[in-house]
Amino acid sequence: MEKKYASMKSIASYVPKNCVANEDFEKIIDTSDEWITKRTGIKTRYFADNNEASSELGVKAANLAISRAGMKPDDIDLVICATLSPDYLGMPSNACLISSRLGIENKPAFDITAACSGFIYLLSLAKSFIESNTYNNILIVGTEKISSILDFSDRSTCVLFGDGAGAAVISATNNENERIIDVNISANGKYNDFLMTPRCLGSNLNFSNEFYVSQIDATQNYIKMRGNETFKIAVKTLANDVKEILIRNNINIDDVTYFIPHQANLRIINAVGDIIGIDASKVVVTVNKYGNTSAASIPMAIDDICKEGRLKKGDLLLLDAFGGGLTWGSSLLYFNGE
Ligand code: COA
Question: pTM to 2 decimals?
Fold first, then answer.
């Protein structure tokens, strides 16, 4: 039997309407456009409307990804969604909500939690499901409404994040020049308190539902980050991870068409880019426009160069991501979309 590979058949994204500039934060917290730009590279980010759910952002990107793959929702065998800002705690999953809105029925659907590394984890799962002959067409979605869990009085986190969604169809192919070459994922829960989202009733605080709703310290309801420590560990881990995946696959950095890292901070992106020795013109940067959109950031960045007409079928992409957990990962793939 011919060998079966997984390939990225399409990419799509959705950016919500409301553009928020650094100057808008100057009106509500002690910060400046100069500080945010210098320390992070971020100039703007987009926030969803209050009544626009994270699953709905995902549906918009997913719809486009399916049509760009030349498929119908019915052709999809599995839907997996990565998010740290789902519509509901635990259930129903965003993947089930997205499937339902797309008209996909009686097909498996589930969410994963890997924070900003979510899209790389999705690639790893999709590749395994396809290469083990379990499914042929998998819809993967990274979608985030992080604005809903931001503490707008905490200047060290609220300026960093944005909302958005990205999706891809991962399909089976026999052509090795169309394949996802490799995906490497990892985690170290020892650093679980570096980045955290609101606690749920399943935590060890054992508060009653009533207590949870009425008494809990309001600051527990928002994203928290030990930024400086995260920054240092991110650069070191990502640089090692990327070097390792290149060596393992015997690929020279000069053969990579685009390096598309998770978009958390321009200084992290540049530091890793310098260490791995990639030409700056090949590094894709969107953090200036969208801020950190967590699981959506990599597919949004891939779609950006696609919309600009810079991405071609056969281009060799190097992806990397780092996020809460702590989690991280990287991937090498030949883009197989039109
Ligand atoms: N405006 C102005 N000043 C700010 C600020 C803001 N928005 N946010 C923080 N500061 C201040 C701090 O209060 C601190 O002031 P102090 O020295 O008086 O205490 C000072 O800036 C330095 O803070 P520090 O946290 O050391 O800055 P930093 O250079 O590490 O930059 C981050 C902060 C968050 C931008 C940076 O640490 C970062 O990007 N971290 C990693 C993010 C990331 O990768 N996340 C993981 C993947 S999602």
Answer: 0.95
